[in-house]
Amino acid sequence: MLLIIPAMEIREGRCVRTAQGVDGFGYPVDPVQVAKLWRTENAKSLHVTDLDGVREGRVVNGDIIRRLVQNVDIPIILGGGLVTLEAVRWAFDTGVYRALISAMLVDNPDELKRVIEEFGATKVVLGIYAVDGVFVRRGTMSSSGLTALSAALNAKALGFRRVVYTDIDAEGNPARVNLKILREIGEKTGMRVTAAGGVTGLEDLLKIQELERYGIDSVVIGRALYENRFSCQATWRRSEAGDYPHTAKL
Fold first, then answer.
1. Which domains does the chain have, with CATH numbers?
2. Which of 64, 151, 219, 220 is the S-S candidate for 196 at Cβ 3.0 to 4.6 Å?
3. Of residues 242 and 195, more confidently modeled
4. In the structure, what pLDDT confidence band is assigned to residue 242 with cuts at 50, 70 and 90?
């Protein structure tokens, strides 16, 4: 069974995308409130990206991230701006559960080795953003010179155990799910793989689930969740809007 992880993208202290409500009930742009929404809907983890951090190459929304950790009782995976050992150390000191590393793999592999030595391979994951199968730096969209598979193999050699793979277009937006590359990475590296972006509804989820035997065990979903594209969501949102009892602990 695939683990579904809601995506939260933060820019200038606000969620870039907010969830649609039910019968006019709106949801705030405050990241903490959105995180609580996903928790009441029984999310087991959150995938948080500091978009300002992606652009500037450093963590920008640190106060928001700290508030997220303090206000929800599920693991937070953080990406965006984690390009140095010091930044990764800050994330873990703040209470982040896992750090998503990307450009450091090619820009500063020696620093990345120190990250793994200090925190262990289970606490860091490699984020692969690929355009036409080529691993790119998300902030600048510049090519790393590596294919997505080569990047994953290099990460495995360093000790990584998990890859978060996102197929993106030339502007850096998530493209459709690339089942072929997901299978290739899982099959040829033996690593665990999280598919991120491009899921438009249940049909995409079912296709990804067919790849579980190759190590694809989880999926990060953003827009499709925020736009209520799964039938069970209407029930959850009505419950949230009506302030009915929840099983999840906030």
1. 3-241 (3.20.20.70)
2. 220
3. 195
4. low
